[in-house]
């Protein structure tokens, strides 16, 4: 009993030191459990394992540490030596909830705090495990030294070994050490170094005489390197980005990370393109009280494939919030119209026509919303006609709100002032000026649980102050219109039993009457009016045009019917069916782009349905049928799958008669094995019988590393003459899990190309 009381305080300090010790492992008994072993545990003790891993580090026998719990010490023999030295011999064990220590022999000096453990030393907590030939240190100074040690850290999924590990409070020195995230049964990659220093205060490590080994083969030697041991940032080299293409040849960029300030960092990447030359890419990120943003730039010096001209790109993006104000900016610049076609691998970026340059501040109150915006564009399509170039808004000021007047009666206020500017070569297209638009309305929404009715009356007043109006009769035209609408619907539901499952089916009929008088608007320029793609929701819009330069004349009655099927137990919507059509009482004379008057009495019948036939699968279909001309207007079908982890699948078909579009699309990231997945996208033009965009690749992933190789082929207008030629590039992404990787641009490509893909699919297990 005296011996037990004497050594207990020392061992408590010793356990605290062990809890702060380094981690890593080279033996399967250091807390590594296979998938089968974890599945054999009681359900309450099981932990999730990523599908691509064969197991994980886990010790179900050790719960969370409890410093208040008793410490139990056992040994075959014990004795006290004069001078305060306590010695334990034979199967020495120290146990406490969340911690376990074992050795053949232990010595502890109660006066100085020195201790020594020898022979098959074993130290375990719920977060790490270590095996060593010996361990010595001092409990008072919180120092410890392991010899011939193997270790594993559970939360980082890493293991390693060392000839000597010394700890001095938060500083750890490793001699002849190794580090890897590969499981014990794999030799994928490992870092070995003569000297490694881990500083838990700064969150970074330093290695000297470091060798990177892949399957035990040395592939890289560095005399000195720093690396993170937690989430804190530090300046240093990142892994390079590699690709190859038909035009540029081999393309490599070496990113350098700069940790400038806790709220500012940057990446500078010198870049070399085999057939073009050298340059650099950069990105500066910041976080302030006004929000967060980034400033990106790129420069290619004297492009040999572009008449030795410099090629440049820049972007500033910002998003923030200050109380009720949201602040947004998106400013883009490229030096020439062909930059994205030549130097960027993003499929959708190649088809951009106008790059935005805009900034806005928006105030959102309980009743009122105010918008202040400036907006300009850089047109990068040399074939775009002047009349199709967008106008700049310098500035746009908008105020909207819905204050209550009395009881349910509400005022719907909408006002907008915009100054439009544009530079064109043709005088008839160079019309600029100011527009002031008001569209106030009185609304009386009456809602009940079983339905609603909302009558509304709206007045439209628009006035202009124009310049360059030689082709228009008036430099200060005005327009005054009125409109009335009535929106009404019912909510009906009934219980339903199908396949022994309780359902709730709803029936939601809706009627919408809208009347806007006709007024000739030929003397008004079209700065921003557009026409929405016709669909179910457009049946119930007041104005069939976007923007404020055209107010569509019409008198119509729209009829719609929605039916939903809800799982009564979970409340989840499984199936939604909708169908509707509009009956017109007069012709629509106001049209865009000099189109003829629309004389149809009935709109196309539009019907769509969404079926969530499992947790991850959904099917959407839409059809539009022109009953008067007995023809299809539009068809679309989309089948999608997303499990939020590894699998993404998208199949689509769309047909639009007006735009002469008939296309099919397939896109997926789909595992065919625990470690292997296929990546692909195919966009096919059925009218032209040609592939527009192709992407095909393969991914390998396990607990040790991740590899992606992708080939991209699309059609691009290289010379700006409207002729599309095929262009093919290859991109490689390689990542050593827990250490880093290269090929980060591939993530952006997949986000652009595969609907439903997000970067969470590429996250590692950490």
From TrEMBL:
Cross-referenced InterPro entries: LipoPS_assembly_LptD (IPR020889), LptD (IPR050218), LptD_C (IPR007543)
Broad class of the protein's primary localization: membrane
Signal peptide from the UniProt entry: 1-27
Span of domain LptD C-terminal: 310-676
Location in or out of the cell: Cell outer membrane
Family matches, as Pfam families: LptD
Record's keyword terms, sorted: Cell outer membrane, Membrane, Signal
Keyword check for Membrane: yes
This protein's record includes keyword Membrane: yes
Subunit structure: Component of the lipopolysaccharide transport and assembly complex. Interacts with LptE and LptA.
Function (record text): Together with LptE, is involved in the assembly of lipopolysaccharide (LPS) at the surface of the outer membrane.
Family: Belongs to the LptD family.
Name of the protein in question: LPS-assembly protein LptD
Highest classification ranks of the organism: Bacteria, Pseudomonadati, Pseudomonadota, Gammaproteobacteria, Oceanospirillales
Gene coding for it: lptD
């Amino acid at each position: 009993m005296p011996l037990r009381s004497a050594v207990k305080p020392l061992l408590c300090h010793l356990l605290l030191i062990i809890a702060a010790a380094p981690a890593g492992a080279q033996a399967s008994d250091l807390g590594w459990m296979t998938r089968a072993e974890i599945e054999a545990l009681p359900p309450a003790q099981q932990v999730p394992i990523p599908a691509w891993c064969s197991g994980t580090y886990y010790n179900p026998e050790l719960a969370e540490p409890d410093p208040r719990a008793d410490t139990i010490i056992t040994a075959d023999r014990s004795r006290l030596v004069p001078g305060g030295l306590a010695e334990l011999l034979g199967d020495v064990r120290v146990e406490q909830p969340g911690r376990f220590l074992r050795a053949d022999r232990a010595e502890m000096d109660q006066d100085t705090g020195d201790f020594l453990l020898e022979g098959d030393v074993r130290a375990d907590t719920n977060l790490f495990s270590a095996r060593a030939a010996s361990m010595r240190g001092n409990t008072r100074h919180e120092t410890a030294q392991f010899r011939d040690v193997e270790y594993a850290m559970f939360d980082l999924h890493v293991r390693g070994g060392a000839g000597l590990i010394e700890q001095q409070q938060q500083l750890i020195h490793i001699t002849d050490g190794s580090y890897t995230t590969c499981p014990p049964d794999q030799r994928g990659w490992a870092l070995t170094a003569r000297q490694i220093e881990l500083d838990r205060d700064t969150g970074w490590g330093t290695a000297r005489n470091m060798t990177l080994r892949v399957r035990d083969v040395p592939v890289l030697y560095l005399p000195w390197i720093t690396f993170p041991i937690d989430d804190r940032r530090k300046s240093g080299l990142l892994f390079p980005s590699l690709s190859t293409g038909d035009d540029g040849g081999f393309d490599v960029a070496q990113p350098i990370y700069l940790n400038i300030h806790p709220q500012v960092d940057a990446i500078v990447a010198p870049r070399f393109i085999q057939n073009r030359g050298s340059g650099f890419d950069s990105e500066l990120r910041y976080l302030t009280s006004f929000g967060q943003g980034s400033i990106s730039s790129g420069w290619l010096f004297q492009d040999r494939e572009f008449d030795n001209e410099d090629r440049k790109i820049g972007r500033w993006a910002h998003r923030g919030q200050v109380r009720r104000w949201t602040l947004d900016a998106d400013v883009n610049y490229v030096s020439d119209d062909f930059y994205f076609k030549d130097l960027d691998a993003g499929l959708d970026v190649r088809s951009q026509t106008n790059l935005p340059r805009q900034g806005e501040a928006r105030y959102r109150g309980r009743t009122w919303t105010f918008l202040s915006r400036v907006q300009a564009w850089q047109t990068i399509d040399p074939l775009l006609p002047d009349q199709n170039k967008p106008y700049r808004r310098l500035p746009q000021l908008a105020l909207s709100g819905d204050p209550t007047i009395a009881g349910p009666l509400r005022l719907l206020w909408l006002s907008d002032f915009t100054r439009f500017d544009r530079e064109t070569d043709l005088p008839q297209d160079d019309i600029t000026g100011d527009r002031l638009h008001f569209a106030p309305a009185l609304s009386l929404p009456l809602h009940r649980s079983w339905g609603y009715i909302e009558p509304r009356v709206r007045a439209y007043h628009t006035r202009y102050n124009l310049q360059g109006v030689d082709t228009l009769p008036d430099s200060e035209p005005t327009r005054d219109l009125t409109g009335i609408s009535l929106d009404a619907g019912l909510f009906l539901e009934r219980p339903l039993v199908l396949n022994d499952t309780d359902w709730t089916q709803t029936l939601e009929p809706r009627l919408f009457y809208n009347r806007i008088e006709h007024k000739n608007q030929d003397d008004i320029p079209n700065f921003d009016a557009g026409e929405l793609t016709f669909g179910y929701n457009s049946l119930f819009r007041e104005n069939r045009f976007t923007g404020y330069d055209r107010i569509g004349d019409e008198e119509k009655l729209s009829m719609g019917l929605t039916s939903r099927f809800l799982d009564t137990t979970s409340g989840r919507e499984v199936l939604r069916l909708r169908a509707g059509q509009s009956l017109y009482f007069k012709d629509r004379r106001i049209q865009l782009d000099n189109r003829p008057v629309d004389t149809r009495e009935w709109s196309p019948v539009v019907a769509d349905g969404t079926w969530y036939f499992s947790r991850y699968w959904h099917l959407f279909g839409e059809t539009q049928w022109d009953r008067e001309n007995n023809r299809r207007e539009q068809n679309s079908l989309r089948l999608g799958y997303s499990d939020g982890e590894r699998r993404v699948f998208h199949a689509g078909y769309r047909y639009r008669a007006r735009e002469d579009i008939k296309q099919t699309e397939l896109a997926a990231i789909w595992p065919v094995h625990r470690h292997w997945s296929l990546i692909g996208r195919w966009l096919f033009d059925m009218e032209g019988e040609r592939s527009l965009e192709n992407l095909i690749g393969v991914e390998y992933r396990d607990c040790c590393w991740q590899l992606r190789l992708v080939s991209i082929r699309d059609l691009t207008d290289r010379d700006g003459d409207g002729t599309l030629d095929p262009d093919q590039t290859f991109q490689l992404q390689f990542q050593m899990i827990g250490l880093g990787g290269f090929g980060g641009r591939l993530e952006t490509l997949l986000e652009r190309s595969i609907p439903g893909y997000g970067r969470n699919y590429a996250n590692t297990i950490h």
